[in-house]
Amino acid sequence: MELRQLRYFLSVVEHGSMGKAALELGVVTSALSQQISRLEGELSTRLLQRTSSGVVPTDAGLAFWRQAQLALRHIDDAALAAREARLSGHVSVGMAPSTASVLGVAFMQAMRERYPDVRLRVVESLSGYLAGMLSARQIDLAVLFREVPAQRWSVASLLEERLFVIGASEFGGMPTGASVRLGQLGKLPLILPSGTHGLRSLLSAAFKRARYEPNIVAEVDGLALLMDYVRAGFGATIQPGAALARPENATLASVRLAESYATRPNMIASVSDDELSPAGLAARVVLADVARQLVREGRWPGARLRPEAVFTKTEDPLTGR
Length: 321
Fold this sequence. Notes:
It is a single chain. The chain has nine helices and 14 strands. It is an alpha/beta fold. Strand 3, helix 5 (97-114) and strand 4 (118-124) form a beta-alpha-beta unit.
């Protein structure tokens, strides 16, 4: 198997056309097709399915595409590191909006200081989407709030966050004091994420356990917009303390939920250690270090550290690997 075959294959999948891929690569279509056929012959499986409108990957081709992307990226990073004789390359890190609001800038600063030659890509999205991107090898690591079964990831517990009732201080019905139980919220108008959101699933379980029927007046899946509505006085919300990290939310009142089970776990998940590039391994260490430092310095509201991160490999229950 040759590196050019991998590059050819990735280009064909990206463009969905032999002709367009050949044009980009600067080769004739017949030569490109020949190399793809040789690759399929060596693997003894069909990678591409020809259609009237172009080509699409087969199931085997899709699986091969994911690993080929990762292999070529590591090869490119290795070549760059060898040329510059110090850690370089690139790494993709995923964070949920609330996590990014408290961790994003500090993590970028630490990476610039420790590894200035590593190119960092940060993806901000909902935790569930980040898990899907991690499974597809579109990102290298992420801060997630729950594990996904049957994924060959390296996972380490990082911290857990207490949840807070957050609202404008003058908003009617906002609780006062250091803490409040769910049953004491009564008919407080709440603006929460929708049912597809991980935090909403956690809250729904907490509501059920507390036998509390919330008064949900709106559902918003974007944290920035949700907090805009809370500041405008349309309702209160229940969020981890990280939602208060941005300056525009500093004027909001917050009261901690008293229920001990009203917490959100945070973990660092990455592709398995044998797949993670040197830049990815370094970024993973920096991410854990920065998060712990923020908690120790009191800059992550409501967060409590878990035992020191020890990365364990999750196994696929079907293969045991």
